[in-house]
Amino acid sequence: MTESIKHIVVVGGGTAGWLTAGRIAAEHKENQAIQVTLVESPNVPIVGVGEGTWPTMRSTLIKLGIREDDFINQCDVSFKQGAKFAKWSKNIEEDFYYHPLVLPQGFSKVNLVPHWQQQGVSQSFSDAVCFQEALCEKGLAPKTIRNPQYGAVANYAYHLNAGKFSQFLQKHCTSNLRVKHVLADVRSVTENELGDIAHVTTEQAGDIAGDLFIDCSGFSALLIGKHYQIPFNSCNDVLFVDNALAVQVPYEQEDDPIASHTISTAQQAGWIWDIGLQHRRGIGHVYSSAFTSEDQAYADLSRYIGRNIDDLSVKKISFDSGYRDKFWHRNCVAVGLAAGFVEPLEASSLVLVELSAQMIAEQLPACRSVMDIIAKRFNDTFTYRWLRIVDFLKLHYVPSQREEAFWQENRAAHSIPESLKELMHLWRYHPPYDHDFTSNNEVFPAASYQYVLYGMGFKTDLSLYRTNDAEMALAKEQFHLNKMNIAKAVDMLPTNRELINKIKAFGLQAI
Ligand SMILES: Cc1cc2nc3c(=O)[nH]c(=O)nc-3n(C[C@H](O)[C@H](O)[C@H](O)COP(=O)(O)OP(=O)(O)OC[C@H]3O[C@@H](n4cnc5c(N)ncnc54)[C@H](O)[C@@H]3O)c2cc1C
Q1: How confident is the model over 33-65, as pLDDT tens digits?
Q2: Could you tell me if 200 and 11 are in contact, meaning their C-beta atoms sit under 8 angstroms apart?
């Protein structure tokens, strides 16, 4: 119980496995006693989707010691500045809103919602309060070639090729971070007398023993699910999508513009993601099998792409929306799809992988006797985060005025969590602000709720709202500053494609 935790075994070599192995190995690089081993099946492929990220990926890559230009060159990366939601409120061409990655202008000083609403909402909320929508609409990059690695003019994340990213991380972790890579199929798990995992037995490499086991085995959840039988909390009564048809569509011309944001277009029983990488777009239709058929989903995808897609390889992925009742049990912690997956909206899965990897790396138990304390904190933190994410994703559906059965059911009171109902009731009279979210474990800040709510046409009743002259003057100044920021940024920034081409030719300066 008091011997130090030395050997960490990660089962699974998808994005979750490599990010977690790398994050732990990088954090403890100086400590030669700590060994991270990643065991991965040579026969079970990675899920191969997950191409939209959050800005947190920049700090994760920095922690891993990765150069941004290497990552951009080798993983087909483009810059992402948020998401454009089309037809989520009404099924008409003109309907769209943005959820950008930059906070509203002056967000820490003044809540601009009431002031924007009082102006008569002639300009969209995100455009009135944030300069990033204008950049996305013009396909501009979030920085210039003169900004150093990871530096930015506008906050950004990435779009990446999931298959190439896992391989890139594998090479980096094994070459630079001493992660041992074992290609073998885990067949069974053996416990010690305490009920901890003593070793996993593999087909090709025998037994692999460890002090801490990280289950990154994807949907198969070999350790947390199959072995420990930790219950799965289903969310399919709240979030209805359960299937995806994913396809890779080459650009017509090599130098076609690359969208600087994810495009999410609502469909009759789900939505389609559209992610522009350097050489292709990754497009997928996420739908609910209770409300549409696979044939119809395929036809809708084909119509969205604008051509027959029979010549392209369409991958079908089915999933149960939900997450584990606990993520860390005894000496086993689940990260990635093994921990849960609700749906791809807002790229919330990889950010949870990064946050999990960070917490494990930074709070790695010194010895077994303190592991249960850290496990409890981990479970409390991540249960909270999953609950908040479910609320936030559901928020995208509830204010919709679309008439199809899927959308009507999405706004039926019985499908909305009580916690979200309560917040939405509050926001009828108080626009969302930081004080609504009191935990420091929030994944999505109050600004994100503002962008989605008011983007979808939600109205707050301001008849009882109290303001004063000083606040009104401050708000007016912020709207003006935003206009100036738009003009300045539009003037100085290259297109997403131009910047990618320059980075490929010249690289980026070191930080
Ligand atoms: C349709 C869809 C779209 C998504 N889009 C996004 C997005 O845009 N943004 C985002 O953040 N996330 C997204 N995600 C989630 C994202 O794909 C995952 O979080 C990410 O890929 C991590 O997956 P993973 O590593 O947990 O699992 P996987 O990629 O499935 O890897 C599992 C690993 O376990 C190994 N394994 C399995 N069985 C064994 C065994 N017996 N022995 C040894 N090894 C084994 C496999 O070989 C593999 O290496 C999406 C998911 C889906 C389903």
Answers
A1: 999 999 999 999 999 887 999 999 999 999 999
A2: yes
CA 156, 161, 165, 166 dihedral sign is: positive
Contacts 24+ apart (CB under 8 A), 459-466: 459/117, 460/113, 460/114, 460/117, 460/427, 460/428, 460/429, 460/430, 460/431, 461/428, 461/429, 462/114, 462/117, 462/118, 464/429, 465/114, 465/429, 465/430
In a domain, residue 456? The reply is no
Cα distances (Å, whole numbers) of residue 248 to 84, 240, 336, 385: 20, 24, 23, 31
- Bridging pattern class, strands 262-267 and 206-209: unpaired
Asked if residue 206 belongs to a domain, the reply is yes
Is the shortest distance between the CB of 15 and ligand 1 below 6 Å? Answer: yes
Q: Is the CB of 51 under 6 A from ligand 1?
A: yes
Cβ of 305 below 6 Å from ligand 1: no
Determine which residue's CA is closest to atom 53 belonging to ligand 1: 317
Q: Does some domain include residue 185?
A: yes
| Residue 31: domain span | 7-51+161-234+321-388
Our answer on whether the CB atom of 347 is closer than 6 Å to any ligand 1 atom is yes
Q: What is the pLDDT of residue 119?
A: 84
Question: The domain that contains 339 carries what CATH number?
Answer: 3.50.50.60
The backbone region for 457, taken as left when phi is positive above 0, alpha when psi lies in -120 to 50, beta otherwise, is left
DSSP string, 45-98: -------B--THHHHHHHHHT--HHHHHHHTT-EEE-EEEEESSSSSSTT-EEE
pLDDT confidence of residue 2: 79
pLDDT digits (tens, 9 = 90+) for 78-92: 999 999 999 999 999
* Residue identifier of the C-alpha nearest atom 6 of ligand 1: 50
Q: Which atom of ligand 1 is nearest to the CA of 162?
A: 21
Return the best residue to mutate from 189, 217, 341, 353 for the ligand 1 pocket (most ligand atoms within 8 A of CB).
Answer: 217
Task: Tell me: pLDDT of 330 over 80.
Answer: yes
Within a domain: residue 382?
yes
Q: What is the pLDDT of residue 440?
A: 78
Q: Give the atom of ligand 1 at the shortest distance from the alpha carbon of 44.
A: 47
Stated pTM of the model: 0.97
Whether residue 144 has its Cβ less than 6 Å from ligand 1? no
Instruction: Decide: 219 and 213 in contact? Cβ < 8 Å.
Output: no
Comparing 33-47, 406-420, 465-479, which segment has the lowest mean pLDDT?
465-479
- Does 352 contact ligand 1 (Cβ within 6 A)? no
**How many domains does the structure of the chain reveal?**
1
